[in-house]
């Protein structure tokens, strides 16, 4: 029996047919930053086309352009051979494109049917939405994609996979001819992912094209007939047939002739283990992480965005509590109940989002530095008043030793540049001389000069015996800075790199390791 | 192209400076202008030591409760229970003194301690049970109103109020300054010192400025928020006590309207000197604007309704112009 779903074009799209989508030499800059320097890509009807690339390669920007959320500076987009301007998301829908983002779009309080019809024009009778007629139309589509819940049931309590199916169903109700899926399996269990793959293949057979974006190379290899690779805002490779394999993908993602930056980090003598974590777990982001951090070393944590690095830092700093696992600090059991407890125990954290999570923007530099050092700026034990002179002079010292560019200590931090703001965030902890300093993306959004200064500062601290943990997504930062790098993937540490093995390529390669496969290897 | 459009709307540095000054000093300029205007219009009744003392004396109770509220809003929360709490405190202290014949100092201590407990409850519900502070304190305030009616059985306590109790509020002390004013100066002075000049105050400001950052800088955010509520509760108790003493009676809803006055003062204060931040000195200025405004209207015999209209209008105009001036000056 042939249903509408299995009828249609064969999976291997013949190159003669007009591609559904052609994007040619798209460029896009945000402010000074060139996010896309020229990407081209074409998708045939019914093709499952893979898109891969490291963080910041330009995938998201490209998708936002297809979705009508950003507009290209230059380049051409054709749908069915017709040149098109995608001015709005509505236009993208009209052209037959549907987008399923990593954060699935749904309204928890509504029914399955209402969620399927979210933003879709609806049939009406006498000016009222005719839900019965809509349900009649939607029911067969819902059955095809395998939504098991009744259409009038609430989506509350449905699994992520089922919500995902609702999103697929919405795309089909809109008669989408291309569905863009961004990391569809990121929060799915293995069995759910299998079901998803089956649906993607079914879509393809019925003539719906899929642009499949994932960091999981095995999925890409499994599903896609052709894969485009983006790197640094360019489409650098298109792999298909025999040329499409894991090694070739990694090679293209990392860049063939990698100019591995000069490794300036000298391996310095490291001291005793200061901090230790064993089998630290907080589902779903951190799974069984064990690590040792030595005095006087800079330990890097590499991996993709979403690999669980920030979440790990929050566990170490007491901002979240682990489900299980143990930590030790200077040999003693360490279970921080709050960041305050972690600070007392001798930790400092410079969070990823400095404006939202680290700084008091309307307050002065002196205030921002003083807040973690109140014990040092009090008049005395019996006079619990603020010693403002001590605070100002402390701030003055920091301003000059970190060369923070500001008029004086009372300048509001919100007026400083990104690099100088970050120096204030770091300076707050340097004053305390913590045993362990954790920096999450320390140079994000910072200019080159400030970046070098921040790196010098970090090394200085390690030289003076501090244990430093640096999380970074910038490919060059960790090899530059760290003595040792641990690479995380999907909540697990998948590789440890030391000495000369620390390189941009090794880090990127390890970032794509599937921890599941790794564990099976161990068992075998 | 869009750059051009923006720069065309950009204001000259001079205009920006003037707007910036207005955003910061507008309320103070307004207060002074009001005093000058009333003095010119009513040179015999308004600008006298007697009248000024009187205005301050009247306003002291509102200033105390508003000072407490300032602490709650500085830590980033709202406390809507204060008016109802002050009413309960008023009726309770009258009962303790008149019916239970407790010594006045002991009764005062008990009532202020109760104020602290109410703040503790508010703080606990907000930080630990994680109920939005508007709902939490409105709920607690409503319960307190019920308790006040239960305690008084709906009947005001009027008879048998001892003279010594009346003297709490009506008495004068140093150089004949009314007690209310002295208490107000001590309370606001203490709160100012706490917020602006102690390490604890730095933590209080940090929590209000950015609670996430405060937590990650090692500040115990929940404890600071609870402290804000406790201080707010204690100040409400103090206002309740002084009001009962001034009225010579305890009534179940006597202090309810202080809630609105306190909020008006606190938000007027946020438009003073600092860009939209709540602070004790600002609250003082805000309370003075309201007090002198009412006094002027009284002197000119304006009807009661106009006082409410004035209070609402001043609040919106002051906070609105400050916020507009700020956003224009920063453009």
From TrEMBL, chain A:
Residues 21-257, 269-515 form the ABC transporter domain. It holds the Pfam family ABC_tran. Gene3D superfamilies: P-loop containing nucleotide triphosphate hydrolases (3.40.50.300). Keywords: ATP-binding, Cell membrane, Membrane, Nucleotide-binding, Repeat, Sugar transport, Translocase, Transport. PANTHER family: CARBOHYDRATE TRANSPORT ATP-BINDING PROTEIN MG119-RELATED, D-ALLOSE IMPORT ATP-BINDING PROTEIN ALSA-RELATED. Belongs to the ABC transporter superfamily. This is ABC transporter.
From TrEMBL, chain B:
Keywords: Cell inner membrane, Cell membrane, Membrane, Transmembrane, Transmembrane helix, Transport. The keyword Cell inner membrane applies. CDD domains: TM_PBP1_transp_AraH_like (cd06579). InterPro entries: ABC_transp_permease (IPR001851). Pfam families: BPD_transp_2. The keyword Hydrolase does not apply. The chain crosses the membrane at residues 21-43, 55-75, 82-98, 104-126, 133-153, 173-195, 226-245, 257-273, 280-302, 308-329. It is found in: Cell membrane. The complex is composed of two ATP-binding proteins (LsrA), two transmembrane proteins (LsrC and LsrD) and a solute-binding protein (LsrB). Part of the ABC transporter complex LsrABCD involved in autoinducer 2 (AI-2) import. Probably responsible for the translocation of the substrate across the membrane. This is Autoinducer 2 import system permease protein LsrD. It comes from Mesorhizobium helmanticense.
């Amino acid at each position: 029996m042939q249903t509408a779903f299995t009828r249609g074009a064969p999976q291997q799209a013949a190159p003669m047919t007009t591609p559904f989508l052609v994007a040619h030499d798209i460029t896009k800059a945000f402010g000074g930053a060139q996010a896309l320097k020229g990407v081209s890509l074409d998708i045939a009807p019914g093709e499952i086309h893979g898109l891969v690339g490291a963080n910041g390669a330009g995938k998201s920007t490209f998708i936002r352009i297809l979705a009508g959320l950003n507009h290209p500076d230059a380049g051409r987009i054709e749908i069915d051979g017709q040149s098109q301007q995608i001015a709005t998301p509505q236009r993208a829908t009209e052209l037959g494109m549907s987008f399923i983002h990593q954060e699935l779009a749904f309204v928890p309080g509504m029914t399955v049917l209402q969620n399927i019809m979210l933003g879709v024009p609806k049939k009406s009778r006498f000016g009222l939405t005719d839900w019965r007629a809509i349900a009649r139309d939607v029911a067969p589509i819902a059955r095809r994609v395998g939504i098991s819940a009744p259409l009038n049931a609430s989506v509350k309590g449905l699994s992520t996979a089922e919500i995902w199916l609702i999103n697929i169903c919405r795309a089909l109700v809109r008669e989408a001819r291309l569905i863009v899926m961004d990391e569809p399996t990121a929060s799915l269990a293995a069995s759910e992912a299998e079901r998803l793959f089956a649906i993607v293949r079914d879509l393809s057979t019925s003539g719906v094209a899929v642009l499949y974006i994932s960091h999981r190379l095995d999925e890409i290899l499994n599903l896609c007939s052709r894969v485009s690779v983006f790197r640094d805002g360019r489409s650098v490779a298109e792999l298909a047939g025999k040329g499409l394999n894991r090694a070739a993908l990694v090679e293209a993602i990392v860049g063939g002739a990698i100019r591995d930056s000069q490794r300036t980090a000298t391996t310095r003598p490291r001291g005793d283990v200061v901090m230790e974590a064993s089998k630290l777990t907080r589902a779903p982001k951190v799974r069984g992480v064990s690590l040792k951090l030595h005095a006087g070393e800079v330990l890097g944590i590499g991996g993709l965005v979403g690999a669980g690095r920030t979440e790990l830092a929050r566990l170490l700093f007491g901002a979240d509590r682990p489900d299980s696992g143990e930590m030790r600090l200077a040999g003693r059991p360490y279970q921080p109940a709050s960041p305050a407890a972690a600070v007392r125990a001798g930790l400092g954290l410079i969070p990823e989002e400095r404006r939202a999570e680290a700084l008091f923007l309307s307050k002065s530099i002196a205030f921002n530095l003083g807040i973690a050092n109140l014990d040092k700026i009090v008049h005395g034990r019996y006079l619990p008043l603020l010693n403002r002179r001590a605070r100002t002079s402390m701030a003055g010292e920091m301003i000059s030793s970190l060369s923070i560019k500001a008029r004086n200590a009372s300048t509001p931090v919100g007026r400083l540049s990104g690099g100088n703001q970050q120096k204030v965030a770091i300076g707050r902890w340097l004053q305390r001389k913590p045993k362990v300093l954790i920096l999450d993306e320390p140079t994000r959004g910072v200019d080159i000069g400030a970046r070098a200064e921040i790196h010098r500062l970090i090394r200085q601290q390690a030289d003076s015996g501090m244990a430093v943990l640096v999380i970074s997504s910038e490919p060059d930062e960790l090899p530059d800075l760290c003595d040792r790098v641990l690479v995380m993937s999907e909540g697990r540490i998948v590789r440890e790199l030391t000495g000369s093995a620390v390189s941009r390529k090794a880090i990127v390669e390890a970032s794509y390791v599937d921890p599941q496969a790794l564990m099976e290897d161990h068992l075998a | 192209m869009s750059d051009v459009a923006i720069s065309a709307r950009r204001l000259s540095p001079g205009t920006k400076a003037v707007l910036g000054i207005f955003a910061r000093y507008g309320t103070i300029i307004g207060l002074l202008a009001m005093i000058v205007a009333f003095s010119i219009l009513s040179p015999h009744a308004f600008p006298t030591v007697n009248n000024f003392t009187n205005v301050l004396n009247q306003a002291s109770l509102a200033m105390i409760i508003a000072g407490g509220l300032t602490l709650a809003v500085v830590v980033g929360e709202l406390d809507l229970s204060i008016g109802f709490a002050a009413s309960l405190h008023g009726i309770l202290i009258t009962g303790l003194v008149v019916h239970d014949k407790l010594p006045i100092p002991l009764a005062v201590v008990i009532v202020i301690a109760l104020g602290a407990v109410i703040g503790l409850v508010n703080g606990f519900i907000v930080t630990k049970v994680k109920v939005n502070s508007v709902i939490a304190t409105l709920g607690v305030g409503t319960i307190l109103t019920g308790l006040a009616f239960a305690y008084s059985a709906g009947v005001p306590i009027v008879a048998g109020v001892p003279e010594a109790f009346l003297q709490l509020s009506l008495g004068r002390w140093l150089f004949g300054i009314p007690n209310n004013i002295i208490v107000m100066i001590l309370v606001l002075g203490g709160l100012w010192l706490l917020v602006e000049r102690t390490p604890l105050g730095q933590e209080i400001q940090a929590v209000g400025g950015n609670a996430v950052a405060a937590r990650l800088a090692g500040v115990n955010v929940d404890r600071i928020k609870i402290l804000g509520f406790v201080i707010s509760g204690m100040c409400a108790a103090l206002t309740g006590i002084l009001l009962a003493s001034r009225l010579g009676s305890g009534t179940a809803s006597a202090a309810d309207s202080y809630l609105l006055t306190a909020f008006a003062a606190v938000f007027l204060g946020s438009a003073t000197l600092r860009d939209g931040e709540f602070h004790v000195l600002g609250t003082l200025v805000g309370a003075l604007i309201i007090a002198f405004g009412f006094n002027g209207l009284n002197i000119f015999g304006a009807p009661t309704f106009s006082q409410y209209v004035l209070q609402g209008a001043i609040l919106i105009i002051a906070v609105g112009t400050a916020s507009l001036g700020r956003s224009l000056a920063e453009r």
